[in-house]
Amino acid sequence: MLVYILKRLAAAVGTVFVIMAITFFLMNTIPGSPFLTEKSTPEQIQLANEKYGLDKPLPVQFKNYIVNYLHGDLGVSLKMQEGTPVKNILFKQGKFRLSIKLGISAVIVAILFGVPLGCLAAYKRGTWVDGLLRVLTTVGVAIPSYVLAASLLIFFAVKHQWLPTLSGSLDSFKACILPVVSLAFYDVCYIAKLTRTSMLDAINQDYVRTAKAKGVKNKWIVLKHALRNSLSPVVTFLGPLIAFIITGSLVVETTFSIPGLGKYFVQSVINRDYPIIMATTVVVSILVIGMNLVVDIVYKLIDPRITLSSTDE
Amino acid sequence: MKQAFKKLSPFQVDPDKVWADYGLNESDFAPATDAEKEEMVEIRKSVSYWKDAARRFKKNTVSMVALFVFLVTLLFAFVGPLLIPYDYANQYRNSQKLGPFEYSDQEKLIKSIEGQTDCMFATALQPGSTTALDPGSYYFKYKGTTYCFSFEKKFADSVIILKDGELSTVREVHIQNGEIKRSTPLEYTTEITPGAKELTVVKKVFPHMVGTDSQGRDILARTMYGARVSIIIGIVAALIVLVIGSIYGAISGLCGGAVDFVMMRIVELIYSVPEVLIVLLLQVVLKDPLQVWFNTSKTWFANALSTLGAGIVSIFITFAALYWVGMARIVRGQVLMLKKQEFVTAATALGASNGRIIKRHLLPNCVGQLVITTCLQIPSAIFLESFLSFLGLGVSAPMASLGSLCSDALGTITLFPYRLLFPGTVLTIIVLSLNLVGDGLRDALDPRLKK
């Protein structure tokens, strides 16, 4: 187990390095310079380039990034908040915290609603409950998050004014509802679908028949015997789920005017603020890769049949 | 025969008695003649894999309805623009921010006299920043006759009316309460003078069924056009993924060993990249160089791509760079599974070449999986494109995709919610129907997977 984790950690470090290289290469191919404005003269640009070390050859710049990152230094912003350390922008100004708050709430909501709904559909299979849930989940995975977000906004915030239109920094519970629901809806539906399928699979297994023969109640069979064995596809989905949540949060942050990481990243790309682009990519990559690692280990814990040594199965 | 029966029978029975009891004859046990055999042969034709799949698909009501709905959206996207007189790019100066089935003041004036004429041309219905006609000659055709006329001054705020073969012009101020108060006859010839421009005449004012946007563009026309762009992007992107993914996966699966190991590590690497961030970067990086390449290159390839626009091409490149990994994994898995099957071993033992094994044994068995994955890839490509366009990347104005339409509408969502909901609903219907068709295909092509 330990060997496996160490191996995966080594691979993760390699992946982060490659992602840094790709990001560095891509962001330097964006035409233009962060210091290029209508007023700036070539001398000013030259000076600014020297100040931030952008005049050095690209390999040297890349090496500097790596060395600084290993020392925990994420650089300073070049343009959007000139001179401010990127670390402060991401962590102290609450951008990262906001996105994480939104993302984690959405993941929790997705699991808390998705799994029970899937169980319910499997338990009541063939009835109108199952039918209704099937229609709902099928439609749910086809609605783009921004359409859902906009519809919810119109109905709950504009028409009835039950909830605020601008969610700001997600301080109150009320402000969280709409963004979290629109972010989590797709995943609730997807997880419910997954759970239902794997639950029906599990229900047809021999050990469920044995339990039934022993006289265990239907409810307990579903909750105790079938659920535990049908959770593995859901756990596998958690990896992609984190990625989906990041994608979705960009859109939801735009719709509800939340000053989170996603929006800031898009702006930093457009403004060519290299250190912010790099830092955001690295932080998010570490998050996603780390989550995938955790998911794989959890996967092993709940399903001992999985062998960890072979990673490509 | 009776002796044989006696020998074989486990009980001591008298064959004569049995024979008599069951009314059997010695001839009942004679071997069948050729003619009799012929009669017994099943005359049903063998059913091919695809026919069988088609039959299963047709039985699936949900998928058939979904397929029908998708065909309707195809009609909406590809035939629809031919049926309405508005265009996705044309801006109507006087008809900005109209609601569904609302008319601008000029349109109302013209609508009030539409029953009294054979056909008409109104400057107010012309697209563009200025609706006046410059001095010069113009013509239009109506019921086989050509009407050609010319103006010496600028022609504005007026309507040209054809009634009982008489052509006349009416100023907008002379239309009151649905009556034409004053009109001036317009002289015309039936020959087209060289250099004359054609005008489009209308019989009735066509309503803006979903209203217009703040630039005065018809939202229905834009949605139809956007749906077309989105569907094309989805299909092309899915095909790109199909080609790259299946070739990569097949090579990896067939070669095995070190090649497979290295290729799969690359796949894993791409898989763990937070793709959204890289996609956003790629979009920004690619846009300008592509534009430069389009403007300078003279090859037919660049010309063909430049009609699509840099935004769409960079979406294709993104798919080619990042999204093939899922397909590659599936194909590799299929190839690995099939490689171990007995029929492949048998073919190898019979001396079949590698090429033959791929063509005759591996490919046909993979096709079902490929079709299913490609079909399900289309909606996810449409999703990604709409997401990028929503963030302001992707296609750029005046081109439209369903995502960019929603994005444009977001600013005025509290006033005009239908501007977002209409394209959003079309997008949902397209994705939903394709998802359901994909599910149906999976059940039909690969019945083992059916849950």
How would you describe the shape of chain A? flat
Shape of chain B: elongated
CATH C-level name of the largest domain in chain B: Mainly Alpha
DSSP strand count of chain A: 0
- Count of individual domains of chain B: 2
Major sheet of chain A, described briefly?
Answer: none
Structure write-up:
Chain A is flat. The model of chain A is unreliable at 309-313 (pLDDT under 50). Chain A contains 13 helices and no strands. Chain A has 2 domains: 1-87 and 272-313, no CATH class; 95-259, MetI-like fold (Orthogonal Bundle). With 313 residues, chain A is mainly α. In chain A, 74% of the residues lie in helices and 0% in strands. The two termini of chain A are 17 Å apart. Chain B folds into 2 domains: 103-198, no CATH class; 219-449, Orthogonal Bundle (MetI-like fold). A 4-stranded antiparallel β-sheet of chain B has the order 1-4-5-8, with no helix packed on it. A 3-stranded mixed β-sheet of chain B has the order 3-2-9, with no helix packed on it. In chain B, a hairpin with a 2-residue loop joins strand 2 and strand 3 (145-151). The model of chain B has no long low-confidence stretch (mean pLDDT 80). With 451 residues, chain B is α+β, with helices and mostly antiparallel strands. Chain B has 17 helices and 9 strands. Classes of the chains: A mainly alpha (313), B alpha+beta (451).
